[in-house]
Design brief:
The complex is a heterodimer of chains A (490) and B (129). Chain A has helices at 18-21, 45-48, 57-69, 91-98, 108-129, 141-158, 175-182, 200-204, 229-238, 259-262, 271-274, 332-368, 398-407, 435-454, 456-460, 473-478, 484-487; strands at residues 133-135, 165-169, 186-190, 211-217, 242-246, 266-268, 289-291, 303-306, 312-315, 384-387, 414-415, 424-427. Chain A has 490 residues and is of the alpha/beta class. In chain A, the strands form three sheets. Chain A has a seven-stranded mixed beta sheet with strand order 1-7-6-5-4-2-3, with helices on both faces. Chain B has 129 residues and is an alpha+beta fold. Chain B has one domain: RNA polymerase II/Efflux pump adaptor protein, barrel-sandwich hybrid domain (OB fold (Dihydrolipoamide Acetyltransferase, E2P)). Helix content of chain B is 21%, strand content 35%. Chain B contains four helices and nine strands. Chain B has helices at 29-35, 82-85, 89-92, 117-128; strands at residues 8-9, 14-19, 22-27, 38-43, 49-50, 55-61, 65-69, 74-79, 101-105. In chain B, the strands form two sheets. Chain B has a six-stranded antiparallel beta sheet with strand order 1-2-3-9-8-5. In chain B, strands 4-6-7 form a three-stranded antiparallel beta sheet. The relative contact order of chain B is 0.25. Classes of the chains: A alpha/beta (490), B alpha+beta (129).
Chain lengths: 490, 129
């Protein structure tokens, strides 16, 4: 390890809640009373006032500044959380989105340029994915999945069919079965083949007249491209079923391959993963749904349409639509950020980002597979999965490795997922990291493996130097304390 | 690894103990070890009819949530209420106090598909490779 490595040192402090800091009459500013409360005889005004904490401006600023120092984000260091694509969020997108803050969505004149931008975004996403239609409103990935599955359900019912089953490969995202269930389907899990991708020949045995769709993540959670996807699509279509693709891993495909060309009928994107908008507590998400022509009439309303003169407007009259999935225009400030990301990179830039994301992941994989067990030899794209198999006999588990990484100033990778791999460590560095940072990460992983051989008990105590040490997750799960009041009963 | 001789096993790591026309079911020592500390067990209510391979409940650890599958078709006639308050019994005594459901099975033929202790041990060592 180089001496110049940045070390994350967190202040050790217990930050009270604002309500605990509150004192009667403490105030940051004098607020004029808008009207004489005593004249309101028919309304109990005081009861309408929420019990807000009373703190001064400087106390408030210090509170949130201290909290921000307890946090870890991509602006501080590498965040290789597999399948979450924690890439850097360019500041230019924040800058441009912030200018929209004063625009009210009901002010039609002020809002029409924004609508134009949203139409451009929709067009870009359709081109990137090779799809015919797009709804920008779902507020997150799982919301997009639910919307997409409801669209498929509606399309089946328009065909006069009731199909109840959705097939989900065992390497798919965990949200897929739950989205299907909420949409009213039952799910069946299909095991992936020996090389870590779904085999069309295995799918055949699951197809019958009750299968509404297959919900596949491509590349899957092992980072492996679903190599038989076109044959899988053909089999599904022959069976009258739809192919849904979870686009959470689109960071491996943008500019290189298009789901629409693979035979995908319906998919969602996670703008907060692939298109560099805030994520992981940093802001709301956005999960646009993209569809082929046949499914377009069923997309949520309103739809953004452009007339022959180029005028963009909202169309609420969509008789076949599944209805509304979000108020107004979804998380519009996130949508605008994604558009800035796309336009600032351009076609070549988007493609380059994808290539670099895959290169970074493969650089790390090839270095770390010498030390950590690699469960599948199949080539991977933007992420890869290692296991604790080599360290387990020494008494060191995936959890210990993840916790120890925090001491080196890294966010831990995704752990114990996908479930098809025991003790999984799912690593996705993204295109954001320079080679020096990748090397520092690999050095840290190797140092942890070395420590596992020499002093495994040390690793059970990690992380040290954090605001709190190893959290007792078992105790926390068995003794649920869900609100501050549970902890401080009055 | 503890694999009692008198029990039957499934590929999903359930154990089954034949008691006349019923089957007592839980997860194996290997399964509890792989899952880690169990923090919650949710079982289907008594009276639920299940087909072989249907879930009879879910087991949640800090690592993952896993389903427990019916080794045979039948009706759940008893569930282990103690697991609601003390899910750790699954870790401490997986073949005893950590049992999950009792199923009254319909067809004794179903039992033949279950592995004996020796087969299960071989299955585990094959899986480890």
């Amino acid at each position: 390890m180089s001496d110049r490595s940045p070390v994350v040192n967190f202040p050790v402090l217990r930050e009270p809640l604002l309500s605990e800091m509150s004192g009667p009459g403490r105030n940051g500013m004098l607020v004029p009373t808008p009207f004489d409360v005593s004249r309101c005889t028919d309304v109990d005004v005081p009861s309408l006032l929420p019990a807000l904490p009373e703190v001064s401006e400087v106390e408030t600023v210090r509170h949130f500044t201290r909290l921000s120092r307890l946090n870890f984000g991509i602006d501080q260091g590498m965040y290789p959380l597999g399948s979450c694509t924690m890439k850097y969020n360019p500041k230019i997108a924040d800058e441009i989105a912030s200018r929209l803050a004063p625009v009210h969505p009901c002010d039609r004149r002020a809002f029409s340029p924004v609508l134009k931008h949203l139409f451009t975004l929709k067009t870009c996403l359709q081109e990137i994915c090779g799809m015919d239609g797009c709804c920008l409103w779902p507020a997150a990935g799982a919301h997009g999945e639910l919307t997409g599955m409801l669209v498929i359900k509606e399309a089946l019912s328009a065909r006069g069919q009731t199909r109840t089953k959705v097939l989900v490969p065992d390497t798919a995202h965990g949200t897929n079965p739950s989205s299907c269930t909420i949409a009213g389907f039952t799910t069946a899990s299909i095991p992936s083949g020996r090389d870590g991708f779904l085999l069309a020949s295995d799918l055949k045995g699951f197809l019958d007249s009750d299968v509404a769709a297959l919900m596949i993540t491509n590349p899957n959670t092992l980072g492996i491209f679903e190599q038989e996807i076109t044959e899988i699509a053909r089999l599904l279509h022959e069976n009258g079923s739809f192919l849904y693709m979870d686009g959470a891993n689109m960071n491996a495909l943008v500019g290189i391959a298009r789901p629409g060309d693979m035979g995908v009928d319906c998919m969602h994107l996670n703008l907060h993963k692939t298109f560099g908008t805030p994520h992981g507590g940093g802001g709301p998400g956005s999960g646009p749904v993209l569809v082929k022509k046949e499914l377009e009439p069923f997309l949520p309303r309103p739809r953004i349409v452009q007339d022959e003169s180029g005028q963009v407007s909202l169309m609420g009259d969509c008789p076949e639509s599944i209805g509304q999935v979000h108020s107004l225009l979804g998380n519009v400030a996130v949508l605008v950020r994604a558009l800035v990301y796309i336009l600032s990179l351009g076609g070549e830039g988007l493609k380059d980002a994808t290539v670099r994301a895959c290169l970074n992941a493969n650089y790390l994989k090839n270095r770390l597979k010498k030390t950590f067990a690699l469960p599948y030899a199949t080539p991977t794209l933007h992420e890869f999965v290692l296991t604790d198999k080599n360290q387990k006999p020494q008494g060191v588990s995936t959890l210990d490795i993840a916790k120890a990484l925090m001491e080196f100033g890294f966010h831990p990778p995704t752990v114990y997922f996908p479930l098809v791999v025991q003790g999984a460590l799912m690593i996705e560095p993204t295109e954001s990291e320079p080679v020096s940072e990748l090397t520092r990460f690999a050095d840290a992983m190797e140092a942890i493996a070395l420590a596992a051989g020499k002093r495994p008990e040390d690793l059970h105590e990690t992380p040290r130097g954090m605001p709190c040490g190893r959290v007792d997750e078992v105790w926390a799960a068995r003794n649920l304390v869900l609100t501050w009041n549970d902890l401080n009963p009055s | 690894m503890n694999i009692p001789e008198q029990l039957r096993y499934t590929k999903d790591h359930e154990w089954a103990k034949i008691e006349d026309n019923t089957l007592r079911v839980g997860i194996t020592d290997y399964a509890q070890h792989e899952m880690g500390d169990v923090v919650y067990v949710d079982l289907k209510p008594t009276g639920t009819k299940v087909e072989k391979g249907d879930p009879v409940g879910t087991v949640e650890s800090v690592k993952a949530v896993s389903e427990v599958f019916a080794p045979v078709s039948g009706t759940i006639i008893e569930t282990n209420a103690a697991l609601e308050q003390s899910p750790e019994l699954v870790n401490q005594d997986s073949y005893g106090q950590g049992w999950m459901v009792v199923i009254a099975f319909e067809d004794a033929q179903d039992l033949e598909a279950l592995m004996d202790a020796k087969d299960y041990e071989e299955y585990l060592s094959a899986e480890a490779k």
